[in-house]
């Protein structure tokens, strides 16, 4: 309301802008005077405000900007290295969104979780749980994972997982990991077959002539 508006203007001048000397602020402080609008209009001219007193929203924004600029000028060293609260909250949110940043690998719960996951996915276990993780994080494994592959889309609902973790999201993740594991096994089987063929070619008797139905010359 009008009283709050006038108090606000007086507070800005007294606390932040301080364009007038203290003894010259009397007319502006007399908020109940009928002449206050004239005092306010003079004040706006004195601080070089480009807006008219009827444009209250614009006037308030401009005076606040002036107050902030003067406040910063008086305390530049204090504010120059400050981080906005919004940015701090954003950093905290980002950290909270990435729980692995503060992960304690020596936590017994983490160790138990790794072993439990290995059991669920039926992958080979190791006495040292960190070795199990490192095997998946070698430079070769990372490079292989970085290679883009084109394949056919897979309908996960058509594949039976064989166990239930009690969480639909984890079940789906387990299905994906199992399918990837099966793909790796198939690649391994293909390489084994190729190795067998190569060995057979080496040890085969070059003198054998199946067309003649005999061995040797």
Automatic annotation (TrEMBL):
Pfam families, per database record: RLL (PF10036)
The organism's place on the tree of life at top rank: Eukaryota
Family: Belongs to the RTRAF family.
UniProt protein name: RNA transcription, translation and transport factor protein
């Amino acid at each position: 309301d009008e009283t709050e508006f006038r108090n606000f203007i007086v507070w800005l001048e007294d606390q932040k802008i301080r364009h007038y000397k203290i003894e010259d602020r009397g007319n502006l402080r007399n908020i109940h005077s009928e002449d206050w609008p004239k005092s306010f209009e003079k004040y706006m001219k004195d601080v070089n405000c480009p807006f008219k007193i009827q444009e209250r929203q614009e006037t308030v924004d401009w005076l606040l900007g002036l107050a902030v600029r003067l406040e910063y000028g008086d305390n530049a060293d204090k504010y120059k290295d400050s981080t906005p609260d919004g940015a701090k909250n954003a950093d905290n949110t980002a950290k909270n969104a990435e729980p692995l940043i503060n992960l304690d690998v020596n936590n017994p719960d983490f160790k138990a979780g790794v072993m439990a996951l290995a059991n669920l996915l039926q992958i080979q276990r190791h006495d040292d749980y960190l070795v199990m993780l490192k095997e998946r994080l070698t430079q070769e494994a990372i490079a292989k994972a970085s290679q883009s592959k084109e394949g056919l889309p897979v309908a996960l609902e058509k594949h039976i997982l064989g166990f239930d973790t009690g969480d639909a999201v984890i079940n789906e993740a387990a299905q994906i990991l199992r399918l990837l594991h099966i793909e790796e096994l198939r690649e391994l089987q293909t390489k084994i077959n190729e190795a067998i063929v190569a060995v057979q070619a080496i040890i085969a008797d070059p003198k054998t002539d199946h067309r003649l139905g005999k061995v040797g010359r």
